[in-house]
Amino acid sequence: MTVVPLLSVQHLTMRFGGLVAIDDLSFDAADREITAIIGPNGAGKTTVFNCLTGFYQPTVGRLTLTHGGGTFLLERLEGHRIAKEARVARTFQNIRLFPRMTALENLVVAQHNRLMRASGYTVLGLLGHPGYRRAEREAVELARHWLERTGLADRADRDAGSLPYGAQRRLEIARAMCTRPALLCLDEPAAGLNPRESAELNDLLLAVREEERIGILLIEHDMSVVMGISDHIVVLDYGKRIADGSPRTVRNDPTVIRAYLGEEDDEELPPEVLVDLRGVPPGC
Amino acid sequence: MAVAGDPAPAAPPIAAILKDAALAAIVTFALALPLVGFETIDVSGVGLGLNFRFAAVAIATATVFLGRIGLAAIALGRPIAVLVPSAGVAAAAALGPWPMRTVAWLVAIAAAVLALRAGLALRRLAPGAGAGAAIPARIVGRLRRVAPPLLLALGVAFPFLPFTDQRLLDIAILVVTYVMLGWGLNIVVGLAGLLDLGYVAFYAVGAYTFGLLALNFDVGFWGALPAAGALAAMVGLLLGFPVLRLRGDYLAIVTLGFGEIIRIVLQNWWEVTGGPNGVSNIPRPTFFGLPFKAEPDEGEATFATFLGLDFSPAHRVTFLYFIILAMALIVNAFTRRIRRLPVGRAWEALREDEIACRALGINPTNTKLSAFAIGAMFAGFAGSFFAARQGFISPESFTFIESAVILAIVVLGGMGSQLGIVLAAIVLIGLPEFLRELNQFRMLAFGAGMVAIMVWRPLGLLSHREPTIRLHATGDRA
Q1: DSSP assignment of B86-103
Q2: Residue B140 falls inside a structural domain
Q3: What is the ipTM of this complex?
Q4: A53 neighbourhood in chain B, CB within 8 Å
């Protein structure tokens, strides 16, 4: 039997002028799994996210998202419709909260479309329709749930911009979860976290996968996070997929090691230099 | 300069203080001599003559000299020695029968500011006083709770207060008009964060809608009001579609240009708008169909005859005042309400981060357009009122400076703060009207007021933002 993957990326290519940021990339991300995309700096990881979430229009490729709500071709949807209809949520490498709104407001804004319908596109809301008040209470309850999950409930009424860095990272994840996504894309969620916070993040992401039953796509440099929680890892280098598999296979893949640690030195050196080097007595 | 915080050193640097004060006095003298010292007067039969006001120059120089010494004394930790005389001077200058009222007022204000600073310094020196920064925050907090109902009561009772005369009421109408415009623009600039330098265009559209409907189709104020709002909102949408993808400075430039386009169209499309001659004989608003007239036509009921009152021109002015007050309060209620609705929150979110909004499924174009159109609609209402009040409109009334003043009210009030806008409108519109005696220095005072606000409160008079929703009841945490 064939299981349709949650996300199927096929032949994704993104060119900026002459620069090929992503070159014919294909991979699948399964539902209820954590798929990590790793690679050295500049490998094109964030570009993949920007294509998935509609910030870039891919040059070539098909991005298919399939879940209970239907099948969506992400490359054809506008950015805000990807979040609204295809239910893809994302966080950003450089945190993008609404700094002068409170943590709670950040999470309520994330439920905009649902509340917009409940407020009769503002008209009923202006008239004080009880249906809107109910919807707003539900929205606050969902926000409270995620604030508690991320340990921010006591700081709910503080401006998001005044929270410490680690809390802002967690709040951004909470905000993404408040959109009730089918696929959650996290762009370096552990960047700048201390080891204890990273460990908490691991627990949170595993719990999200188990309880919310959604797929998570993760870009991360912190290998303790990646290796600890990923079900499946895709390795990029210069926009190409160089490995794809379970954490164990990827960790031992020589191509991956080479991409991260560079080529072995002596392969790069010209032969006459190697000859010279051999002439040098050991220990010098 | 001495630094606050080392109270009473062994020997106060008297020479340095005197030198500093003398320097300031010389600068004041040099500035005041040409600006204040000469006055042109109409000498009968001869033409213009010059009047020398050396007393005023001397007073200004002396005020600055003494004030500078006072500031130094406060910094040296002797606020009481400053507080008593400066308060005395302030009272004497304000209440005494001085021949030059404007000069006396300026001295009084200067002395009062000095006394205030001395008082604050005294408070800071007192044992057990909180940190200096905590005082304004607490005062602002209390002000925010008490001021709105007080201002509302004052606003409603204003026409009936004993000292309110027709001139004062006219100023009040002007101030409330700007409050309404400020509240309208606040939706666009303060909430949605779209810098709009052409807001007066929508004001003009509203005014001309009413003016032309009245002129050509004999439509009254109340009939034209919805049309003015709707048309202004439409124009807002039309402008918004192409330009709202722009951000910040670029949007500001395009809206600036748009404001000028509307004005130039009004000026040149003379077949319809009357060109520079404008539209005149615009009918006044009626009270449920009852006009305000001194001499009614045969058998015509007017406001005065219907209620059995003697005719007074004050009736109409008072009525106009209440119309604009009601319209402004509607805008305020609307804004306060819509901030708590998803659209309002989306506006604020858009101001904070447009990219994050898109990632949350908020349609930025629609959200911006709604802010733009609603702001424009309120300007249209205000414009229609303006036409009804003036009875005459011309493109002259809708120049860029109007947009700039409205924007200044929003920015100086503290972006997004409804109360701050009221205070800023009073300071920027009311005071200059009061200070008409200052003649050509009125705009100088206007500019000085703006600079002063930006120096002391760079985020605006009231920059505090009240959350639209809370998880914990207020007071749970500091």
Answers
A1: HHHHHHHHHHS--S-HHH
A2: no
A3: 0.83
A4: 359
